[in-house]
Amino acid sequence: MRSKALTHLSLHKRVADTLRAEIAQNYKPGQRIEPIRQLAKRFGVSELTLRIALTNLAQEGLLTLRQGSGCYVTDSATTKPVGILTDIDLFHPHTSFFHRRLIQQIRQWCVEFGYRERLYIGHIPPGQIEPSSISPEFLLDSEEGRLRAVAALLIAGPPPVHQMEAHGVPVVGIDFFSNTRSIYKYRVALDTERLIPEAIKVAKESGRNRIALINWHLPSNNSDFTTETFHRSMAEAGLTVRPAWVQSDTHLGPSSAGWNRFRSIWNASSTEKPDALIVCDDLLFPDVHAAILDSGIRVPDQLLVITHANKGTGFFHSFPVVRLEYDPDEVAQAVGALLEELLKGKPVSKPGAVIHFKIIQSTASDPDPILKPAAGLTVHPSLQE
Q1: In 3D, which of 361, 260, 265 has the Cα closest to residue 309?
Q2: Is the pLDDT confidence value at 22 over 60?
Q3: Which domain holds residue 32?
Q4: Are 211 and 257 in a shared domain?
Q5: Nearest in space to 70 (alpha carbons), one of 102, 99, 31, 114
Q6: d(CA 332, CA 170)
């Protein structure tokens, strides 16, 4: 039985290989190939073997099987996938909800509009810029013209944009700073350079003038853009920067990074404390939140807390917080709108879009619904202590 199975397997594979060569040499896109019965007779195989070979070619995207009509050569230009490219490691524990949600929504957009999609993932940990780790499979597929379009999301190192565009492959990229020169002809940018100035403005309008900052440190970046922006914006607002209150050397790795940096700020002086705190990342905030609670600080009476928070992250806080919130779905919609115009050959109304954050004054969150007892159930008092 084993010998027959191997013979059968090799037979339909040989038929598929021969048909693949014939299609490449003798058929045009959209052309119908010979009927199954006729092909089976010509190859001297059973119709079952022939059907298996055709199914395999259809799975490769070479043929389209139409019920009751026959088999047609696929137009490869319309069946090439949209490449979704990131060089960030999506499986890293510190990869944010924003990144995962953005890619999920772009994939969903492809499904809704009938485009095949192919995801290419890199190995860079979040918060690191170099070296780039663009997928070798993506580079190969790009060079061999296997992609219909590319959504370049969350790229630390530049992908071969000009090479792809030279071959007629449209590329839509995401930039995290809208005021910088971009490698992308078509792009969606975030106005992240406004986060710090707006946070300082909110603090000052609330009567606060002793402002602290906690920010990630990107070890491969020669210029700490956020810290420079903080110093400049504080000067423009007529406020003084206390160096001990600027913690921008925070690395993403340690789970207690936010906790340690806040305690360093709060304990820097026994006589003077900050009255406002800007936290520049939603991954840092849980540790900072715990440190504030542990220190017994009254928020916002003693300390106004302002933080970057992405919509949908399950953001929890037990005291009032000012959130500077981006919506990953809004970013994905803007990328999809540009891709749709490019793929349909429509005139692109605007080659770029800028996504703005929303300022949300939020009171204490409700307890996590996962921790709430279900209706009709009783929580034992000992479990509530």
Answers
A1: 361
A2: yes
A3: 21-77
A4: yes
A5: 31
A6: 16
